[in-house]
Amino acid sequence: QVQLVESGGGLVQAGGSLRLSCAASGSIFSINAMGWYRQAPGKQRELLAAITTGGTTTYADSVKGRFTISGDNAKNTVYLQMNSLKPEDTAVYYCSAVGVVTRASIGDYWGQGTQVTVSS
User: Fold this and answer.
1) pLDDT tens digits, residue range 43-74?
2) What three-state secondary structure class fits 83?
């Protein structure tokens, strides 16, 4: 059974920083890519950033230059460093893992989400 566990969310003032972490656990042989999404109330879930095991990264325009995604393949962990936070960054942030290979299956997984609130 694969699980993704996020941590690092919380309340921060505008202009501040937070670092989110997401660790994938289970009998994992490999992961193709991991990413971060967010969903604000009344809005669709949006992709913020993703990173492949080879280190290739991609970012949404809304966070480019402010957020940085990084990963530790040995730990099956991905991080999201968020700087210069704005009130509009307030949302539930979700971690995802794509192409997770275990002994029994290949699949995609989501974390449970962590709340980020940016006060003005």
Assistant:
1) 999 999 999 999 999 999 999 999 999 999 99
2) coil
